[in-house]
Amino acid sequence: MEPIVYLNGEFVPLSQAKVSILDRGFCYGDALFETMRVYSGKIFRLDLHLDRLERGAESLFLKLPETRERIEKILYQTFNRNQGADAVIRLTISRGEGIPGKLWQEDTTPALSVYVRPYISPPHEWYQNGVSVSLIPDSASKLGNLQRQIKSANYVSSILARKQAEDLKSVEGIMVNDQGEVCDGTISNIFMVKENLLSTPAINSYVLGGVTRQVVLKLAAQTGTVCKETSISADDVLQGDEVFLTNTGWEILPVTRVDGKTVGSGQPGPLTQALQREFRKCVDAEIGK
Ligand SMILES: Cc1ncc(COP(=O)(O)O)c(C=O)c1O
């Protein structure tokens, strides 16, 4: 069955949802997006996604076309018009159609779209055995002078880093900046464990403030695990006892090989597994299981 999407006030079949070639998201990446996970009909941490969306809109001087309450309603209305209780929802807000050649424009009508796709879980063996990642030097893109607390739709650097990673048969590329610091994955945040100390790169202009990252930091604190938000070098990651990635769709994904070298014991580590269990409890609590 063809997905039903929301576009600027209307619910239409995907094939009928069109935006202009003058749309500033298309022309310049002048847009924001959120990818959200629906568990048993409930959008996980919707508040955190909407917080990030609002922060992004403020940073880009983009006036959201709908209130937070209306956006929430639209998300659930679109979800309900599609099949399946477990899904992924993509919300995109671009600055809308612009005048060609005019780089800064504030009098546009922003375009809001929502697309829902069924959730397809990553292969089971990824969680059982961990995945391989590659460090991609000099690939982390800096979002101007903005903290990457915002989820800009400009993903060219991530796309290129992902291509390099896939060419190397890795599941994810870890973007490293020009100072040799590990930043984030192309679609994920990275954590490492060394001598029972959990650490993750601090949010800065290279590191996206992921929702799952935020949830994991909270779960770690609640379970008495110290986590440092700090600068991590590529060498540090190679010396880690455990490494894992976080992303809305992957949740907590163990990494057991970095650049072909085995991480720790070569199996998902105990702290990674403990956090995975806590994350699952958190989802169950959210959906009232
Ligand atoms: C560059 C980057 N870092 C981190 C993440 C993880 O964010 P979240 O946990 O909100 O899915 C994403 C998600 O797509 C991302 O694109």
Describe the structure.
This protein has 289 residues and is α+β, with helices and mostly antiparallel strands. The protein has 2 domains: 4-118, Aminotransferase class 4, branched-chain amino acid transferase, N-terminal domain (D-amino Acid Aminotransferase, Chain A, domain 1), CATH 3.30.470; 124-286, D-amino Acid Aminotransferase, Chain A, domain 2. 29% of the residues lie in helices and 28% in strands. The strands form 2 sheets. Strands 7, 8, 9, 10, 11, 12, 13, 14 and 15 form a 9-stranded mixed sheet that branches. A 6-stranded antiparallel sheet has the order 2-1-6-5-3-4. The two termini are 30 Å apart. The mean pLDDT is 96. The structure holds pyridoxal-5'-phosphate (PLP). The site of pyridoxal-5'-phosphate (PLP) has 14 residues, from helix 6 and strand 13.
Number of strands: 15
Helix content range: 25-40%
How many separate domains?
Answer: 2
Percent of residues in β-strands: 25-35%
A few lines on this structure:
The chain is of the alpha+beta class. It is 29% helix and 28% strand.
List strands and helices in order, with pairings:
Blueprint: E1 4-7, E2 10-13, H1 24-28, E3 31-39, E4 42-43, H2 46-59, H3 68-80, E5 87-94, E6 111-118, H4 124-129, E7 131-136, H5 156-167, E8 172-176, E9 182-185, E10 189-194, E11 197-201, H6 211-222, E12 227-230, H7 234-238, E13 242-247, E14 251-258, E15 261-262, H8 270-286
Parallel strand pairs: 7-8, 7-14, 11-12
Antiparallel strand pairs: 1-2, 1-6, 3-4, 3-5, 5-6, 8-9, 10-11, 10-13, 13-14, 14-15
The structure holds pyridoxal-5'-phosphate.
